[in-house]
Amino acid sequence: MSETTVLDESRDPLAIAEEWTDGGRDVALATVIETWGSAPRPVGSHLVIDADGNFHGSVSGGCVEGAVVTEALDVIGDGKPRMLEFGVADETAWRVGLSCGGRIKVYVEKLG
Q1: Where does the XdhC- CoxI domain lie (predicted)?
Q2: Domain range for 58
Q3: pTM of this structure
Q4: What does the DSSP assignment read for 17-54?
Q5: Has residue 3 been placed in a domain?
Q6: How many CA atoms lie within 13 A of 28 on its CB side?
Q7: Contact 33/107 with Cβ under 8 angstroms?
Q8: pLDDT, tens only, 61-75
Q9: Is the pLDDT score of 48 beyond 90?
Q10: How many whole angstroms separate alpha carbon 74 and alpha carbon 68?
């Protein structure tokens, strides 16, 4: 994706994932599968990531997207899905900014 490309934020991340995979991109999909407390996105929220680090959607309203994108790039590289957990009881909570008191589980898988 070029720097001048602007995605329509109202578009469904799953539609974007389909376009990207149909266009030959390597793509990972991150899906919120469990929340607790004040997690900012509901179960079923999606973030789609391509091998260049471009992404669309949200799994946390910005709290953990950077960490999820990093893991997704590894998933694209090795093809192995990952279950990620973030929350205040986890030592990564303060590093990724999920200090609002919630917890989320995100499943990341390679598409295509």
Answers
A1: 20-87
A2: 13-111
A3: 0.82
A4: HHHHHHTT--EEEEEEEEEESS-SS-TT-EEEEETTS-
A5: no
A6: 27
A7: yes
A8: 888 899 999 999 999
A9: yes
A10: 10
